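Annual report, structural modelling task.

Input specification for the P1T complex:
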Amino acid sequence: MSEQHEMRLATKVIHSGQRPDPVTGAVMPSISVASTYAQSSPGVHQGFEYSRVQNPTRYALERMVGGLESAGLSEEEDPGCGGFAFCSGMAAIANIVELIPAGSRIVAMDDLYGGTGRLFTQVLAESRGMRTAYVDLTDPAAFERELTPETKLVWLEAPTNPLLKLVDLPAIAKIARRQAPDAILGCDSTFTSSINMRPLELGFDIAMHSSTKFMNGHSDAVGGLIATNRRDIAERLRFLQMSVGAVLPPFDSYLTLRGIKTLAIRMAKHNESSMRIAKFLDQHAKVERVLYPGLPSHPQHELAKKQLDGFGGIVTIFLKDGLEEARRLLERVRLFALAESLGGVESLVEHPAIMTHASVSPERRAELGISDSLVRFSVGIEDCDDLIADIEQALG
Ligand code: P1T
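The model returned the following structure:
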């Protein structure tokens, strides 16, 4: 691993945790589909017993994730070097919450993917008595007020979905370590991928991705990834992965690993084109306001410059004319597909209030500012001039 720490990210995405097949020399792992492995005597095997527990293709992906996120665990400490692959982003988050006792308090960012809030409030509150306080973590003082010693998990996204709010991770970590030393600090890094930000390097315990998005990047596999630099968490999470069984299957593990190989060049293009599109939209007469961390008008632009290695592939706008205008835009786009999800090579656009954040109550959406005039673009890696032309014609 020490060699891998010296690699830069564009090299890590190709080589982290990878080695040629010891038998054939193949430079990519095979898709290992066997559900079980032969033993020479009961309990005597080559480290593989049953595919839910150990799978070589999944391990190759997991070691990649551990390396990308600077988890720093050796293969002896954890077979995935601190990286874990689950069958969806939601399954990854659900397993993380299994790390803390029933009845625990969670302090979470107020702006979250709708499905995450639904899991905390409509599932885990009932099944495990979890109590979640939603706080605007852009304000560390507000976080400090909500943080009790009973808090067992701090959960946030940065930038958030869909409002692209940023959180000062080292500042949050400092307060949490002082006031709630038992709390596990987790960051959903879906919007940055491992290229634009790495939470473990900023004092957090867990980085998590919906790999359905940028990490895989090709809109052809649903998955969730986790990395941790804490041995105790890795050990428990490995146990949970085996016990709960929400593992990423071999073929999806292979696709995700293949996708990650181009992550660095894809993110460079997402970052570059999104900046251009954000500037274009910022000048457009029908647009009320553009939210993009790379624009000086973003309220946390200075933090974005400090904390992010790229401003990301998502641009969110408020239109002047509300739902009518939003509908017209969403029905008229030709290259951008009107669809949920984000982070793929193809450009997507969606309406958070009706689509991804429909599970957030209308009152809560109003409080947060997820209005009917809000539209979220996921900028793909097509020629940016074509994308701008598409938005221009759709806005009429
Ligand atoms: O869809 P799944 O792989 O289970 O991941 C859920 C998830 C978790 N975290 C964030 C920040 C997400 O954005 C998502 C999924 N989001 C969408 C489908 C979306 O369009 O926003």
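The chain has two domains: 56-260, 264-395.
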